[in-house]
Amino acid sequence: MTEFVKVASAGEIPEGQRKLIDFEDVTVALFNVSGHYYCIEDVCTHDGGPVAEGELDGYAIECPRHGALFDIRDGSVLSMPAVVPVQKYEVRIEGEDILIESPDDW
Ligand code: FES
After folding, report:
1. Which residues pair with 55 in a beta bridge?
2. Given this model, what pLDDT does residue 105 score?
3. Model pTM?
4. How high is the pLDDT of residue 1?
5. How far is the CA of 9 from the centre of ligand 1 (A)?
6. Half-sphere exposure of 41 toward its Cβ, with a 13 Å CA cutoff?
7. Residue of 25, 58, 60, 31 whose CA lies nearest to 43
8. Which of 5, 8, 25, 68 has most Cβ atoms within 10 angstroms of its Cβ?
9. Which ligand 1 atom is at minimum distance from the Cα of 64?
10. Measured from the CB, is residue 65 less than 6 Å from ligand 1?
11. What's the gap between Cα 57 and its chain centre?
12. Which residue lies with its CA nearest to atom 3 of ligand 1?
């Protein structure tokens, strides 16, 4: 069964902002876009760049290394040079808590 872990509280991440979260082997970013939360891994599938730290335009995140674009809602590729989706994690809201699917389950 998928485990969810609390990674933030409501109000902690302003709209349009993100929070980077380190797990043992994985760094992920949790984004707030218009009050909805999305989570992807901070590893570009093109060449390992810190994709989640790039510029966000709407739902499109641009990898700062070579400029690939991904949709933070589902991790899908929006533009080259990446061709493989970035790992995304399910987000769940429970009261004031924001939880994500545990990357340690992968
Ligand atoms: S590492 Fe992200 S576009 Fe190359």
Report:
1. 62
2. 60
3. 0.94
4. 77
5. 31
6. 19
7. 25
8. 68
9. 2
10. yes
11. 14
12. 66
